[in-house]
Automatic annotation (TrEMBL):
Name of the protein in its database record: Dipeptide transport system permease protein DppB
Main subcellular location: membrane
GO cellular component, one term: plasma membrane
Provenance organism: Martelella mediterranea DSM 17316
Localisation: Cell membrane
Family under the similarity heading: Belongs to the binding-protein-dependent transport system permease family.
Topology term for the membrane: Multi-pass membrane protein
Keywords: Cell membrane, Membrane, Transmembrane, Transmembrane helix, Transport
């Protein structure tokens, strides 16, 4: 990718984030409800209410509030949470690693599981096994992540209690980490008991998020592989005696990755948004769970910070998709 292409993407990312900031800031100010009213005691005076408004910058007009917020945000000050009384940026940095580990674990599960099943279905095309895979995959596509979460809690948390149904690690072990990247830290430091404890808490949330993603990958990659199997170069390779497995893995897979990669990136952004409900169901201490509490408490600074963090994540993922698309498709390298 050329320098001009990278510069254009950076400019578009900045414009997108600014647009997200404007929209979320304005929407939060026009929806019904007063965050200050949720903080004051029944006997608070008018002076007490005014003091709180001044403290959180809610006494000025909306344009002035927006200008102050943008100016402070550019210096790294995202404001102070109304409900938690802590800096928003520190709260985000504290919860973000949990959500990132969960999302990327679900991505790895979805890509590997979906990719392998798509290859299997391609090798089994025009057989009863392909029909079974298609029927099951259609079912998986129809079930959203939060339904999978509820089903997994009932099946593997209540009926057959194999995995923990809440939290990120056993409370007795939560003080054994130097960073908030529990899974990565425990693996790098070779503390496998901690690693498997963290992993056991992630299994059901990862399955809930990863199963719909795997279903999308199966359908997309299978269709791309079947289309590639009809090309002339595959017929020539087959005439030379190449086995079906080698045809799929060595010849057609690299040509089918492009469209699958693009759609996977889009679905990954949707999946990150889905962590809000899934984290709530499993009481997983990530940004999504915190977002619901922030909305309930009308915590404007925290909501704004969370939405911007999600927006930044989506922008970075889209840039990564573009770069990966250029890498896997040589025709786009000079575009």
């Amino acid at each position: 990718m050329s320098f001009t292409g990278i510069f254009n993407r950076a400019v578009m990312a900045a414009v997108t984030l600014f647009g997200v900031a404007v929209i979320v800031f304005c929407l939060l100010r026009i929806v019904p409800g007063d965050p200050i009213a949720m903080m004051i005691s029944p006997g608070a005076s008018a002076d007490d209410i005014l003091a709180l408004r001044v403290k959180y910058g809610l006494d000025s007009s909306i344009p002035v509030q927006f200008g102050v917020w943008i100016r402070e945000m550019l210096t790294g000050d995202f404001g102070t949470s109304i409900s938690l009384k802590r800096p928003v940026l520190s709260l985000l940095m504290e919860r973000l690693p949990a959500t990132l580990e969960l999302a990327f674990a679900a991505l790895v599960f979805g890509v590997i599981g979906g990719g392998l099943i798509a290859i299997l279905a391609t090798l089994a095309r025009r057989t009863p096994l392909e029909s079974v895979i298609d029927v099951l995959n259609g079912l998986f596509l129809a079930v959203p992540d939060f339904v999978w979460a509820l089903l997994l809690v009932l099946a593997l948390g209540v009926a057959i209690p194999i995995f923990p149904t809440s939290g990120r690690v056993d409370p007795s072990l939560s003080g054994d980490f130097a960073t908030n990247f529990y899974l990565i830290e425990s693996l790098v430091t070779l503390r496998f008991s901690l690693f498997f404890n963290v992993l056991s808490h992630m299994v059901m949330p990862v399955l809930a998020l990863g199963l719909p993603l795997a279903a999308v990958i199966i359908r997309t990659l299978k269709e791309a592989l079947n289309e590639a199997m009809l090309q002339d170069y595959v017929l020539l390779a087959r005439l030379k005696g190449m086995s079906e497995t080698r045809l799929v893995v060595q010849e057609t897979l690299r040509n089918a990755i492009g469209p699958t990669l693009t759609l996977t990136g889009v679905q990954f952004t949707f999946m990150i948004g889905g962590t809000v409900i899934v984290e709530r169901i499993f009481s997983y201490p990530g940004i999504g769970n915190m977002a619901i509490d922030a909305v309930i408490n009308r915590d404007l600074p925290l909501i704004q910070g969370i939405v911007l963090m999600f927006g930044l994540t989506f922008v970075l993922i889209n840039i990564a998709i573009d770069l990966a698309g250029n890498f896997f498709n040589p025709r786009l390298k000079h575009g």
